[in-house]
Design brief:
This protein is mainly alpha-helical. 63% of the residues lie in helices and 0% in strands. 11% of the residues are buried.
């Protein structure tokens, strides 16, 4: 990986983190406790609770991803970034652009069933 690619990945990580921060704050808003007598429009309380559970799940996933991305952003300048932890081969640049927190190359990921 050349330094230009590294820079591209850094920018990509920043973009992902900003998008996730936005998403997380929206989801936090949506997962606030529902008042017992509250119903909005056509949604019943039961439906609201179900929707909240979906949002809570999404919130959890987003928090996990943002942590991974923040970790990746600290590692991106290091020599070992972009190297598969399993086979020590290079992880494809295209893959890192899509999933900057990747620690495995595609073939190891498939082999290990990750
Ligand atoms: Zn590998």
């Amino acid at each position: 990986m050349n330094s230009q690619q590294r820079q591209q990945i850094k920018n990509q990580i920043d973009t992902y983190i900003k998008a996730l921060q936005h998403e997380i704050s929206e989801l936090e808003e949506k997962t606030k406790p529902i008042a017992p007598d509250c119903s909005i429009g056509r949604l019943t309380r039961q439906e609201m609770i179900q929707e909240q559970q979906v949002n809570e799940h999404a919130l959890g996933e987003s928090r996990i991803r943002i942590n991974k991305l923040m970790y990746a952003s600290k590692k991106v300048d290091k020599e070992e970034y972009g190297i598969c932890v399993e086979c020590e081969g290079d992880i494809l640049f295209e893959r890192l652009m899509l999933v900057p927190e990747s620690s495995h190359c595609v073939s190891c990921k498939q082999e290990l069933g990750l």
